[in-house]
Amino acid sequence: MDALKQELKEFIIEQLNLEDVNVEDIENDDPLFGDGLGLDSIDALELIVMLDKNYGIKLTDPKQGKAIFESIDTMAAYITEHRVK
Amino acid sequence: MSKSYKIKSYCQIKDGELSLNGHLIYADHSNTFSEFIKGAYKSEKTKYPKFFKMDKLSKLAFLAADVLLKNEKLDPSIEQNIALVFSNKSSSLDTDRKHQETIQDPSNYYPSPAVFVYTLPNICIGEVSIKYKLNTENSFFIFDGFNARHLKIYSDILLSNNKADEVLCGWVDFEDDTHYEAFLYLVSSNGNTAHNEHEINKLYNN
């Protein structure tokens, strides 16, 4: 689980172009949207594509994303339970 | 008789150099476009994290516009009536190619939303408008080459019909990492340079 959380942090920083943010700057329970990392709606779509591409998880209801992408903790828990890759 | 307008200020980015009103303010000839534009952005001390999410065309347009508008010392609390008229020849081709790469292989079909949103040249106008709160007239034209006559006529019409107080216009073209160019200038009632084809071309070819 810790390796997955590290992987997710690295992906978010690199793929979402978070300049000046390091892995150690992101706490596992930090909110990813809003006041946390300040991700936007395009970033949310990018995370949905990442779930499919990297873990074989297809989100059919985008509303699910709100709970799944709340933090690194919630993402890692959902991926661990539903991954097919 | 139609009113004559002036070129208030202008900004150029090309060949690893950024200049304002003919004065070099940043240069880096040893790096890729991405490194150059990042260095130029940091040298300008513009705190705008969304810059790093933009495509290369938008970074080029945003930085040139930012240098020009910052130089005007605009009051951020007041909505500015500055129209935007941009043009180029490559449209958003660089980003279009990147998007195409993500959908080329049917067995690995994962279009990136962050890339796709930039597959229109006028998105760069939106980026400038968001940063400077410009709810104003805007247009993006595609030409075979720099077209001073069109820019002059179009911006004069906007100003003479009171559609804008000033016009930020010019040429923002990103073909590839070694062929890119931004030339933006501000047209106003005030300024030291006449707004005519000859002067626009003279500044552009400077």
UniProtKB/TrEMBL annotation, chain A:
Keyword Phosphoprotein: yes
Matching InterPro entries: ACP-like_sf, PP-bd_ACP, Ppantetheine_attach_site
Domain Carrier residue range list: 2-83
Matching Gene3D superfamilies: ACP-like
Pfam families: PP-binding
Domain of life of the source: Bacteria
Name listed for the protein in its UniProt record: Acyl carrier protein
UniProtKB/TrEMBL annotation, chain B:
Name recorded for this polypeptide: 3-oxoacyl-ACP synthase
Originating organism: Pseudotamlana carrageenivorans
